[in-house]
């Protein structure tokens, strides 16, 4: 998983450098994780950020006891390796926007929140909501991860359209193109 993140962040840095001459940008707010910020706010209120290796210790046993099942190794690695502001990219003509990890909430709060959101659409499942997606101009898709199968998929609640995106979150992150 670390290799997948590293490859993606290299592509993201390149896109921002070529487009803006900066590191990746995020709107500044007081509640941002200061460890990620590497610049002062610019005239438009944006700061440069860089991913950082995760510092927070996650109590996986407690989380698993709360949600009632074991979280697979790939998803644990996804939440445990880096803190980051964004992972935005394109994969097979699908625009993907992964939720930040440890940007404004702790890692454990993010995991619980993503699980709770997943349960609103897929109750009594092992589904986590991990972001949003846009397909053919429709930005109403939620990006999900199935802990049982490792499949990343998106679902649009209004149209009931479901589409498998990848068999692996690490493969997806490593191979998608970075986007602004």
Plain-language structure description:
Helices cover 32% and strands 28% of the residues. The protein has 5 helices and 11 strands; from the N terminus they run αβββααβββαββββαβ. It has helices spanning 2-20, 60-67, 73-80, 107-121, 169-175; strands at residues 25-27, 46-48, 52-53, 82-83, 87-91, 94-98, 127-135, 138-146, 152-156, 161-166, 177-178. The strands form 3 sheets. A 7-stranded antiparallel sheet has the order 10-9-8-7-6-5-11. Strands 1-2 form a two-stranded antiparallel ribbon. Strands 3-4 form a two-stranded antiparallel ribbon. Helix 1 runs parallel beside helix 5. The mean pLDDT is 95.
Short description:
The chain is an alpha+beta fold and 180 residues long. 32% of the residues lie in helices and 28% in strands.
Strand content: 25-35%
Strand order of the largest sheet: 10-9-8-7-6-5-11
Distance between the termini: 22 Å
Derived from helix and strand composition plus strand pairing, the structural class reads alpha+beta
Gyration radius (Cα, Å) is: 16 Å
Gross morphology is: globular
| Main beta-sheet annotation | 7 strands, antiparallel
What's the overall average pLDDT, rounded? 95
Counted beta strands: 11
Low-confidence stretches: none
Q: Which H/E pattern describes the elements?
A: HEEEHHEEEHEEEEHE
* H/I helix tally: 5
Question: Considering DSSP H and I runs of 4 or more, what fraction of the residues is helical?
Answer: 25-40%
């Amino acid at each position: 998983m670390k290799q997948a993140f590293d490859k993606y962040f290299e592509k993201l840095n390149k896109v921002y450098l070529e487009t803006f001459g900066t590191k990746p940008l995020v709107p500044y707010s007081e509640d941002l994780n200061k460890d990620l910020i590497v610049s002062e706010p610019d005239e438009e209120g944006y700061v440069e950020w860089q991913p950082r290796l995760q510092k927070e210790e996650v109590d996986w046993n407690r989380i698993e006891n709360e949600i009632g099942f074991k979280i697979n190794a790939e998803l644990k690695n996804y939440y445990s390796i880096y803190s980051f502001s964004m992972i935005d990219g394109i994969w097979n003509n699908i625009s993907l926007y992964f939720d930040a990890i440890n940007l404004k909430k702790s890692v454990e709060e993010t995991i619980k929140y993503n699980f709770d959101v997943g349960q609103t659409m897929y109750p009594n499942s092992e589904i986590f909501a991990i972001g949003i997606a846009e397909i053919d101009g429709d930005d109403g898709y939620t990006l999900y991860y199935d802990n049982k199968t490792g499949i990343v998929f998106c679902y649009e609640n209004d149209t009931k359209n479901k589409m498998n995106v990848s068999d692996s979150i690490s493969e997806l992150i490593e191979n998608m193109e970075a986007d602004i």
